[in-house]
Structure formats: C-alpha cells, structure tokens
Design brief:
Distance between the termini: 26 Å
Order of helices and strands: HHHHHH
Strand content: under 5%
Number of strands: 0
Shape: globular
Number of domains: 1
Number of helices: 6
C-alpha cells in the first residue's frame, strides 16, 4: 500500500480486505453502506478523495463491533499504523490499562522480531 495514504485510510483498507475474507463480502458491503465508505476493491481504488476521515473512522468503529476479535484487530492495527485509538473502543479505565499492556507487549515483540530478522 502506498505510504502517502493516511493511517485512517490504511486501517480502513486493511479491515475492508480482511473483513471480506473472514466475515464475507455481504457483511462488509453492508457495513460500508451504513458508514458511507466506498468498498475497496484493489490498489486502484481511489478512496482518499471520496471518503471523509469521519466516515472512515465510523467504518473502523463499526467494524470493531462485529466481535471481540475484530475489536482487537482494530486496536492492534491502530497501533501499528499510528492511528489514535478511537475513544469509543477504550471504554472503562481498567480496560485501557489491559489494552495498553497488550499493545506495549506487541510493540516489544515486533521490535524484537525486527531486530532478529535484521541480523
């Protein structure tokens, strides 16, 4: 995916593709229709000028409501892509601490794995 795409678009694009594989095309098409996001269909899809940041964020938040695994995927992708985690996903303070711990562990693991792969 080109680097010039913003983090919100990157996360929405990944979720759209992943969601079609896991939950089926119909589920993701319905989700896109409810949130006002064009369904991505390949690298040639020009979402940027069409979809607003707000509609993309609505898509991401609604995707996270599909099930707990979808929510964790959104949280992890947000961290990896540098997207601020939507406050709607964080909920209670206790959950925030748990999620922050998981994301920190993931970050440490990713850094360690990258170091090992580099040599």
């Amino acid at each position: 995916m080109p680097d010039e795409l913003g983090p919100t678009l990157k996360v929405a694009d990944i979720l759209s593709r992943r969601g079609q594989t896991i939950y089926g095309r119909r589920t993701i098409v319905d989700l896109c229709a409810r949130t006002g996001v064009a369904l991505t269909s390949g690298y040639d899809a020009e979402l940027g000028p069409v979809d607003s940041e707000e509609s993309l964020m609505d898509f991401i938040i609604e995707y996270s409501k599909l099930n707990p695994a979808a929510k964790m995927t959104v949280l992890i992708l947000s961290e990896i892509c540098g997207l601020s985690i939507p406050k709607e996903l964080l909920g209670k303070k206790k959950r925030i601490a748990v999620i922050a711990g998981v994301l920190e562990s993931l970050s440490d693991f990713t850094h360690d794995l990258s170091s090992r792969l580099k040599g």
